């Protein structure tokens, strides 16, 4: 099936859309930072969110930070590929940059929550869903409680949500265990880029 770019089979594999999801505290930010270093040609989607920036986060780099009214307007105008509410905040993926990257033959990666991953799967069945998982449940609990940035009630809620997210593992095409950031990023990059074109 043609992808509309006029490229060959190898290019189609390289322009695949991959969706990364996983529970809070599993290390998605660290793995993605390493993936950016290892795979500079990958297009990383920057999500829109209504939550406040955390220390060190830069608007337009980590997220596009917007207020609730602007977010609702984007939803109404069909500007988001998916959107979901998580832990009291809204998140969404701008549609146009993703479609532009795929049309240009660049592999594209979205890092979104489970609700959004399900929406992308429904809208784009060819998308690859990858779950980033902790080495163990106890490890995830240590990561979340060790942050020291949120009150115990928030942590308890995140753990409850994490259980639900990990239970959705059968819905995903691949699972990458984050026992080591560099190794997890290398495995994820292999999945994002896909097999190298056969030039024989």
Layout of secondary structure:
Blueprint: H1 9-14, E1 17-21, H2 28-38, E2 43-44, E3 48-49, E4 64-65, H3 68-76, E5 80-86, E6 89-94, H4 95-103, E7 108-111, H5 114-123, E8 128-133, H6 137-146, H7 152-167, E9 174-177, H8 181-193
Parallel strand pairs: 1-7, 1-8, 2-7, 3-4, 8-9
Antiparallel strand pairs: 3-6, 5-6
Give short descriptive properties of this protein.
200 residues, alpha/beta, Rossmann fold, five-stranded parallel sheet, four-stranded mixed sheet, 8 helices, 9 strands, 42% helix, 19% strand, globular, disordered N terminus, disordered C terminus, ATP binding
The largest pleated sheet is described as:
5 strands, parallel
Assign the CATH class.
Alpha Beta
CATH superfamily: P-loop containing nucleotide triphosphate hydrolases
Unreliable spans are 1-13, 196-200
Share in β-strands: 15-25%
Main sheet: strand order: 2-7-1-8-9
How many domains is the backbone divided into? 1
| Amino- and carboxy-terminal Cα gap | 21 Å
- Mean pLDDT over the residues: 87
Quaternary status of these chains? single chain
- Rg (CA only): 17 Å
And the CATH topology?
Rossmann fold
Shape label = globular
Percent of residues in helices comes to: 40-55%
Element order: H for helix, E for strand: HEHEEEHEEHEHEHHEH
Number of strands: 9
Q: What is the count of helical runs? A: 8
Strand-pairing-aware structural class: alpha/beta
CATH architecture descriptor name: 3-Layer(aba) Sandwich
